[in-house]
Amino acid sequence: MSSDTVAVIGLGYIGLPTAAILATNGVTVVGVDVSDRHVDAVNRGEVPFVEPDLATHVAGAVSQGTLRAQKDTPAASIYVVAVPTPFKDDHAADLSYIDAATDAIIPQLRGGELLILESTSPPGTTEHMAERVLAARPDLSLDGSDDRPVVQFAHCPERVLPGRVMIELVTNDRIIGGLTREAAERARDLYAIFCRAELHLTDATTAEMAKLTENSFRDVNIAFANELSVIADRLGIDVFELIDLANKHPRVNILQPGPGVGGHCIAVDPWFIVSAAPEESRIIRTAREVNDDKPELVLAKVAEHAARFEGPVIAALGLAFKPDIDDLRESPALAITRRLAERHPEARVLAVEPNVDELPGSLTGFDNLELAETTAALDAADVVLLLVDHREFKQLDRSLIAGKDVVDTRGVWR
Ligand code: SAJ
Questions:
Q1: How far is the CA of 100 from the centre of ligand 1 (A)?
Q2: Using one digit for the tens of pLDDT, what is the confidence trace for 324-365?
Q3: Cys-Cys crosslink for 33: which of 11, 42, 64, 276, Cβ 3.0 to 4.6 Å?
Q4: Residues with pLDDT less than 70, the chain
Q5: pLDDT value, residue 3
Q6: b/e map of 225-252 (b: 16 or more CB within 10 Å)?
Q7: Ligand 1 centre and the CA of 120: distance in Å?
Q8: CA of 324 to the centre of ligand 1 (A)
């Protein structure tokens, strides 16, 4: 294995695009993943999930010989760790994937390597990773003290928007926090290979917090919109009109309410701040709670409409966590659809999701729930619940919903 190799650990939504863009820029990259499906797909030049333009990059890099995938962690000069950081029941971060990735890197270290943590992580995780390495390898050091070979650590959080990853990898500024200045500078040189925007250097904990802060900012702002939607319901006014009008003010820019906040980032990351500083994180915690309460409020509204019919047919439009993607992770639409089937045995629930071909596992096994095509579902429906503002639904012929009971959580049919 060449010492110039970059090993990217975790070939998911972030690791694979990063591996591919480095490789198409001429860097020798080995992608590492625990999943045979991911490894085999990449080695065939294919992508195991939907992300625009990624397939072209992966196919190009594999055929050019700069990218390949395997299950074992190789020797490399730079390691980029992009594994999941879910949260546990108490909302503290589950670092077990980071620890497992680190443990697999440890035996490969000879001195001179740079370890970059890209996974979104609670403050102190890069330091935790370094402590784990140095505890197992007292022959190495962070700064060359006692003439021990150096191993460097940096955190460079990803900030790309699913659906625009290949563009935003190039155009978004990046924050690079090193445990030492040298580590940050070396990481900067790696990202400069493909990133055309600014690369801002700082310490590792500030970089960790910056990423969490960005997503918490968005969560708090969405919670404001969601809270307004509940207030508007109480007052009998249209929240979407209300927000449109308030946003005419030059310094007001309110986000849009919806059925809740989903995805693996915004619904997760704020908890890492709350967990690190529970007493101080009052707004951040409340915003999470407001957003997490929203699905129940939507369900209550649907129940009111459903009660008007005997054996109602409910069309639930959209399962993804946001428009025009197939990603169902932490999706409020998915959770709402499941609870509809559970709580309304008298109803027939028609789930419509133009971006998937079959019902996801969590929706199978219900006698009263099936995947349906848009027009057929709307034809049969008594109650229409719009959960995701997919293009197909926005462009819908409105005569299809005329006369139906409609709950439009995204305000697209106003
Ligand atoms: N949402 C609303 N109303 C809005 C905007 C969003 O209800 O006005 C909902 C969406 O429907 C979705 C959720 O919020 O359920 C999150 O969607 P999103 O588009 O806001 O964000 P993500 O999760 O796809 O990506 C975010 C981005 N972070 C920010 O915009 C600050 C992205 O740049 C990050 O890289 C990504 O998280 C990540 O990986 O952390």
A1: 28
A2: 888 898 999 999 999 999 999 999 999 999 999 999 999 999
A3: 11
A4: 1-3
A5: 60
A6: bbbbbeebeeeeeebbebbeeeeeeeee
A7: 14
A8: 13
CB 179 within 8 A of CB 130: yes
Output the residue whose Cα is nearest ligand 1's atom 29: 215
Partnered with residue 314 across adjacent β-strands are: 349, 383
**CA angle (400 as vertex; 259, 311 as ends), nearest 5:** 70
Residues 6+ apart with CB under 8 A from 213: 273
For the CA of 255, the closest atom of ligand 1 is: 8
Which of 219, 229, 351 minimizes the C-alpha distance to 294? 229
Q: Distance (Å, rounded) from C-alpha 144 to C-alpha 26? A: 31
Contact predicate 260/291, CB 8 Å = yes
Phi and psi at 78, nearest 5°, equal -130, 135
Residue 80 tokens, joined: 């980029």
Of the candidates 323, 256, 325, 248, the one whose C-alpha atom is nearest the C-alpha of residue 291 is: 256
Q: Whose CA is closest to atom 14 on ligand 1?
A: 261
CA distance 31 to 168: 21
Cα–Cα dist 111/113, whole Å: 6
Query: What's the CA-to-centroid distance between 266 and ligand 1, angstroms?
Result: 6
Residues classed as catalytic: 211, 265
Q: Which atom of ligand 1 is nearest to the CA of 269?
A: 40
Q: Where are the alpha helices (DSSP H) in 137-180?
A: 165-171
Q: Identify the residue whose tokens are 């900030």.
A: 159
> What residues does CATH 3.40.50.720 cover in the chain?
5-197, 240-408
Class of CATH domain 5-197:
alpha beta
> Any residues with Cβ below 6 Å from ligand 1, and which?
120, 158-162, 214-215, 218, 222, 255-256, 258, 261-263, 265-266, 321-322
For residue 389, the ligand 1 atom closest to its alpha carbon is: 11
Ligand 1, atom 4, lies closest to the CA of: 256
> What is the Cα–Cα distance from 167 to 60, expressed in whole angstroms?
17
Closest ligand 1 atom to Cα of 163: 24
User: Which pLDDT score, from 0 to 100, does residue 377 have?
Assistant: 98
| Cα distances (Å, whole numbers) of residue 185 to 31, 202, 211, 383 | 23, 10, 19, 57
Q: What is the pLDDT of residues 93-151, one digit of tens each?
A: 999 999 999 999 999 999 999 999 999 999 999 999 999 999 999 999 999 988 999 99
